[in-house]
Amino acid sequence: MEKLALGCAAVSGFVGVAMGAFAAHGLKGRIDDTLLGVFQTGAHYQLIHALALFGVGLWLARVDSPALRAAAWCFLVGTVIFSGSLYTLALTGVRAWGAVTPIGGVAFLLGWAALAVAAWRS
User: Fold this and answer.
1) Do 104 and 98 touch, CB atoms closer than 8 A?
2) Global pTM?
């Protein structure tokens, strides 16, 4: 599981940097500032959770724990749903994607809660 978490963290970090650069250089002036901010929020949260997932992967390399595995999956699913929905909303302008975003946010919260449980039990 630790190799999967570390690999996904690396890919997520790469994509997060690419999306941030795309927002700054490819989207600026092409979409309105509000949607640009939405896109940048997706990149920001993706990068934060790429680092969190990397940390979980390192911890998993030392200790296999159901709580750590849950945290890894929650961070990964949260990134796909939260950041993915914000990217899609910004690029399409379809506001309905905003209703999907909180599902990813809940996954992030569950990931942090699982991480706290892992810390408490260690």
Assistant:
1) no
2) 0.94
